[in-house]
Structures are given as C-alpha cells and as structure tokens.
Design goal:
- Helix content is about 25%, strand content about 25%.
- It is α/β, with parallel strands linked by helices and about 230 residues long.
- It has one domain (about 10-100, about 120-225): CoaB-like (Rossmann fold).
- It has an 8-stranded mixed β-sheet with strand order 5-4-1-6-9-10-12-13, sandwiched between helices. The chain has a two-stranded antiparallel ribbon with strand order 2-3.
- α1 (about 35-45) packs across α5.
- The termini are close together.
- It binds ligand PMT.
- Ligand PMT binds near residues 37, 92 and 127.
Length: about 230
C-alpha cells in the first residue's frame, strides 16, 4: 500500500503510568515504562497520522513528529485526552491507576508514632471507557489494552465489552513475562469483526507497534472506502 496510509487522519495515544499523589512528595504508581505506548504513537505518526501522545511520567524520549502532552494523574490524563478530540483513532496503552488517594495531604506526612497507617482510595475516571462513549466525538476506532495475569483472552474479551472499545490488545503481565518495562511483548488482538483472537508471536514492542499501526491503517482504509 501507500507509504503514508494514515495521512489526513488524527490519532490519540495514551502511554505510561499515572502518578496519584498522597502528599507533596509521595505517590501511587505502577511499573509501566511507556515503551509500548510511545512506540505506538511513533508508528502511527510514521504512517502519516497527526498524532497526540498523552503520557504519564516516564523516562522515554518524545517520539519524533508526535505532539506530546505530559501529565501526572489519571484526571489530568483524561482532560488532556478530551482536549485532543476529535480524533479518528484512539489507542489506550497507558497503565492508568484505577484508584487514587481520597485525600492528598497538603504537607509532607510525618512518620509519627502510629503502628499502622490507613490509606483511603477512590476510583479514578476510566479514560478508555470515556473515549468509547464520547458520543459524536467518539473516534472511529478505539483500541484498548488489557493487562492480565490469568485467563488473558477471556478477561480481555470481557474488558472489551465492558469498556465499549472496538479492539483490545491483550497482554500477559504476570511476574517473569517482562511485559511491564521490558522490550518485548506477546499480544493477542481481539477485534470486533473476528471471533477468534489472533495471537502474535513474541516480538519487540516496536514491532507490535508497527504491526498494530498497519492493521489500523488497513481497517480505516476499508471502513471509509478509501
Ligand atoms: O509501558 P510498558 O512498560 O511498555 O508496558 C506496556 C503495558 C503493559 C503497560 C501495556 O502493554 C498495557 O497493557 N497497557 C494497559 C495497562 C492497563 O492498565 O490495563 P488494564 O487492563 O488495567 O486497563 C484496560 C484498558 O483500560 C487499558 O487500555 C487502559 O489504558 C484503560 N484504562 C484503565 C483504567 C483507567 N482508569 N483508564 C483507562 O483508560
């Protein structure tokens, strides 16, 4: 096909962890490095899409040719994603914290003498679900990820239905897989038009990104009869 099949399209990608503040110096986070999400943003941009990457804190270099918005918390990530609309393609690869501390202490918390400290949490907004339900702003193709540690495909299918996205990319994040933080990934692509999930061979996250971007380009080309 053409070298830049996504020219004229707009894409939004989320990447990295979120940081949920506990006090001015502490936060809740997770092991996401941003490697997978950043690679996807770069791959979509190389295929010609005008791409916005909304990323939590990572050490990754901003991908060339991509507009990058740096955020910390899930709520900031949601706001930055909503600001990026309308887009044709959304890919949510970020490991967004499902919960945040109910109260952020205004000053650094003191160790004190208590034998135990409780942390109260409340649910964060779900960015993938929000984009999937964005009404007339809904992207033509919404792709989620599913990070699972057991019954990977089954749980990912349920997640796709529950969150309302079109495709979901399932990956096993069990200890020892290196999926969080590593350079390689083994993924299963679950689409809306296929009953059988595709299991891709283990490959670099860069190769996962390139393959996914090609698939997205094929899909949008067909859908619009281009
Ligand atoms: O960053 P790396 O080190 O390269 O690792 C890559 C990865 C493992 C983080 C990535 O491949 C991946 O699986 N990303 C999704 C991680 C995740 O949080 O999955 P989940 O199954 O908890 O969430 C399902 C989907 O909902 C995801 O698309 C997630 O971005 C989205 N979500 C979840 C919660 C929330 N509050 N908002 C969301 O948008």
């Amino acid at each position: 096909g053409q070298a830049r099949p996504l020219a004229g399209r707009r894409a939004l990608v989320t990447s990295g962890p979120t940081h949920e503040p506990i006090d001015p110096v502490r936060y809740l986070a997770n092991r996401s490095s941003g490697k997978q999400g950043h690679a996807i943003a770069g791959a979509l941009a190389r295929l010609g899409a005008a791409t916005t990457l909304v990323t939590g804190p990572t050490v990754q270099v901003d991908p060339p040719g991509v507009r990058v918005q740096h955020v910390e918390s899930a709520r900031d990530m949601l706001a930055a994603c909503q600001d990026a609309l309308p887009v044709d393609i959304a890919v949510c690869a970020a490991a967004v914290a499902d919960w945040r501390p109910s109260d952020c202490a205004p000053q650094k918390m003191k160790r004190g003498d208590a034998a135990e400290l409780g942390l109260r949490l409340q649910p964060n907004p779900d960015i993938l679900a929000a984009l999937s339900a964005a009404g007339n702003q809904r992207p033509a193709l919404v792709v989620g990820f599913a990070a699972e540690t057991e019954r990977v495909v089954e749980h990912a299918r349920e997640k796709r239905a529950r969150k309302g996205c079109d495709w979901i990319v399932a990956n096993d994040v069990s200890v020892g897989t290196g999926t969080f933080g590593g350079d390689d990934n083994t993924v299963h692509l679950i689409t809306d038009d296929a009953t059988t999930p595709e299991t891709w061979p283990r490959m670099t996250k860069q190769a996962v990104a390139d393959t996914l971007a090609e698939r997205i380009a094929e899909r949008l080309g067909t859908a619009k009869g281009a």
